[in-house]
């Protein structure tokens, strides 16, 4: 059974940085990509970053491009989200996700989800 376990969520001040981690285990079929989504209270789940397996390609939502960086440690089956210049509007529950086929930033296309990690940015 595939498990995605996030860590690194915290409360920080605006302008600060955080790094989220997502450890993947238990998969037998190759994962095509891994992604980070976020969901603020009362809002839908927003895809923020995706990385293809092997780290050959990344993509970001407009809201985080230039501030967030997704990376992968293939040896440890871990994906990271480095978040810099954090803003109040970045506050959300952050979810790690993985897909076997569709690597668009679309929540409905994901095959596996982590349980989420809270990130809170104070002004």
Give a structural overview.
With 123 residues, the protein is mainly beta. It contains no helices and eleven strands. The chain has strands at 3-7, 11-13, 18-25, 33-39, 46-52, 58-60, 68-73, 78-83, 92-99, 112-113, 117-122. Strands 2, 4, 5, 6, 9, 10 and 11 form a seven-stranded mixed beta sheet that branches. Strands 1-3-8-7 form a four-stranded antiparallel beta sheet, with no helix packed on it. The chain is globular, with a radius of gyration of 13 Å.
Q: Roughly how many Å is the radius of gyration?
A: 13 Å
Tell me the helix content.
under 10%
Distance between the termini: 40 Å
- Tally the helices: what do you get? 0
Largest sheet: 7 strands, mixed
Shape: globular
Helix/strand order:
EEEEEEEEEEE
SSE class: mainly beta
Question: Uncertain segments of ≥5 residues (pLDDT<50)?
Answer: none
Characteristics:
globular; four-stranded antiparallel beta sheet; mainly beta; seven-stranded mixed beta sheet; single chain
């Amino acid at each position: 059974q595939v498990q995605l376990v996030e860590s690194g969520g915290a409360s920080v001040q605006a302008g600060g940085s955080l790094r989220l981690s997502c450890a993947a285990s238990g998969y037998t079929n190759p994962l095509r990509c891994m992604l980070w989504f976020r969901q603020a209270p009362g809002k839908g789940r927003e895809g923020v970053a995706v990385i293809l397996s092997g780290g050959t390609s990344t993509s970001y939502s407009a809201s985080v491009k230039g501030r967030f960086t997704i990376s992968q440690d293939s040896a440890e089956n871990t994906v990271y989200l480095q978040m810099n210049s954090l803003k109040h509007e970045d506050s959300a529950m952050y979810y790690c996700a993985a897909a076997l086929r569709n690597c668009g930033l679309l929540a409905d296309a994901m095959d596996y989800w982590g349980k989420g990690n809270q990130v809170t940015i104070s002004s």
